[in-house]
Amino acid sequence: MSLPQDPPRSFFPFGNPFRMISPKSSKLSPQLLAVLHAFEETLEERLKKLIPKSKDEVSMSWMTLAMQALCESHNDIKTLMSDLELPVTDWDEKWIDVYLDISVKLLDICNAFSSELSRLNQGQLLLQCTLHHLGSSSSDRLFRACSSLDGWRQRMSSKNPRIEKCGSILDNLIESSDKKVKKSAKGTVLMQAIYGVKVLTVFVCSVFATAFSGSTKNLTDMDVADVYTWAPSFKGLQNLVNEEIRIRFSSGKFTVLNELEAVDLSVRELYPIIRGNIHTIEKESHAKTVEELGKATKNFSQGLDLLAKEVDGFFQVVLSGRDALLANLRSVTLCNDHILGGKSDAQVVN
């Protein structure tokens, strides 16, 4: 698979919507400051845990941990809303617009990631078929094994159009951060917390889109102001992960996923052997290569299952938060309509 080398997206062509959002902490009460600091301390610890101890840790396992961190952080937003005792009736209308706008884009991204994981899973089924057919030395079974590997190679060289669209979705998600909203004291806490989670979300999603597309065009470098306590941890995480991804692609690798690379190496070694011995193959002399493919396929399959589970979990977290907000909005509307209806009836009676 040929890899286009794309320039890093260090700055945004329409200005950086992730520019500093002043916390204005001096205007917050001690109670609200405590709530905000607790939220940001948790976010900072989560970011620190995602910093790989070595560059080799940038893998499907890391992506699974990153998606878990997203689920936890978005759940923390729900908890924060409860702690702030900020009912929907107190929300600025633009807060609602921002929240719903972000959520629908995240659902689109989750669907794109799920489609790619499904595509990769179909590919690993071809690998399973290959291993099954290699259990026999008959020419017919070897032909089927070769056919399965052909299918795998074609699948890996193809593009997923839904992943190709993730770049524009991420750009729109970033732009949604640029909306001006009125902030009460509680609103300031809420929007600052959402900002932190949004930064983590864009970073993780950009890494996913890059890993799945095989191109750095979706990789985003965000400039976060140092006024946030979690900013140094985020910058360290972003710099290490993004740098390693760029190094791997620039060295000619077709993927940044260790598990997928191990499969690819085994396939590259085994494929010419099978094609050259389509009628017969010496199982003993090539048993080690087949065994390595089996181990790599198993690790790849397990990684896919875990990652797909976390992506689905994140989809459900975003969807449930969106549904809860819409349900609250409907209940408020119905309540207001009931009150207005009651007043109207009272006027008629009089």
Descriptors:
disordered N terminus, 350 residues, 10 helices, disordered C terminus, mainly alpha
Which helices and strands appear, and what pairs or packs with what?
Blueprint: H1 30-50, H2 60-84, H3 93-133, H4 139-157, H5 161-164, H6 166-175, H7 185-213, H8 231-250, H9 258-276, H10 283-349
Helix pairs in contact: 1-2, 1-7, 1-8, 2-7, 2-10, 3-4, 3-6, 3-7, 3-10, 4-9, 6-7, 7-8, 9-10
Your description of this structure?
This is Protein BPS1, chloroplastic. It comes from Vicia faba. Pfam families: BPS1. With 350 residues, the protein is an all-alpha fold. Helix 1 packs parallel to helix 8, helix 3 packs antiparallel against helix 4 and helix 9 packs across helix 10. The chain is elongated and about 75 Å long. The N terminus and C terminus are likely disordered. It has one domain. The longest helix has 67 residues. Helices cover 73% and strands 0% of the residues. It is built from ten helices and no strands. The N and C termini lie far apart (79 Å).
Largest sheet, described in full? none
Which parts are unreliable, with pLDDT below 50 for 5 consecutive residues or more? 1-5, 7-26, 334-340, 343-350
User: What is the residue-averaged pLDDT?
Assistant: 82
Query: Which structural class best describes the helix and strand composition?
Result: mainly alpha
- According to DSSP, the number of beta strands is 0
Radius of gyration: 25 Å
Helix content: over 70%
Number of domains: 1
Helix and strand succession? Answer: HHHHHHHHHH
Beta-strand residue percentage = under 5%
Number of helices: 10
What best-fitting shape do the alpha-carbon axes yield?
elongated
| Straight-line N-to-C gap | 79 Å
Organism: Vicia faba (Broad bean)
InterPro entries: BPS1_pln
Protein name: Protein BPS1, chloroplastic
Pfam family, one: BPS1
